[in-house]
Fold this sequence. Notes:
By secondary structure, the protein is mainly beta.
Amino acid sequence: MMKTLVEAEMKRVQKFAVDVTLDPETAHHNLILSDDGKQVKPAQSFSSEKLYYEIQVKQKSEWSLGVTRESVNRKGKITLSPQKGYWTIGLRNGNEYKALAGPPVVLSLKSVPQKVGVFVDYEEGLVSFYDVEAAALIYSFTGCSFKEKLLPFFFPGDYLDGINSSPLIISPDGVN
Length: 176
């Protein structure tokens, strides 16, 4: 019953899919961008009422993704929290999932996400994350106050001697 409800909710939010491409003038020197702009800093901002996109995270041991305010400082050390303008979830150490909610919220997932869907309802102040294959809600930030444009946020994680070398990949048309 619950899975059916989440599947229906996912179908509803997937109607707001947007095409996300990445900016080669990335703020971080360790990122490599593919020619098609799909593999990690966004080139466009969003202020539309609702939007949805999906990111492939399979074969990753570390990543963070979500949305951020357009005005945040993206150079140097950053703190991922809504108070600093970041609404994100992440994976650390291959099996530790957290919503970076300041303080972080430990997430207990029933399956390992291969693809994560990100849904933003700008007017409602909502950012939700879904495990696409499992049709499961991972986490929602509610009561958010968006006063400016938002950017997709992607951190592919550190590359450590061949570990975590897979890229984060944005689904070509937002939904795949």
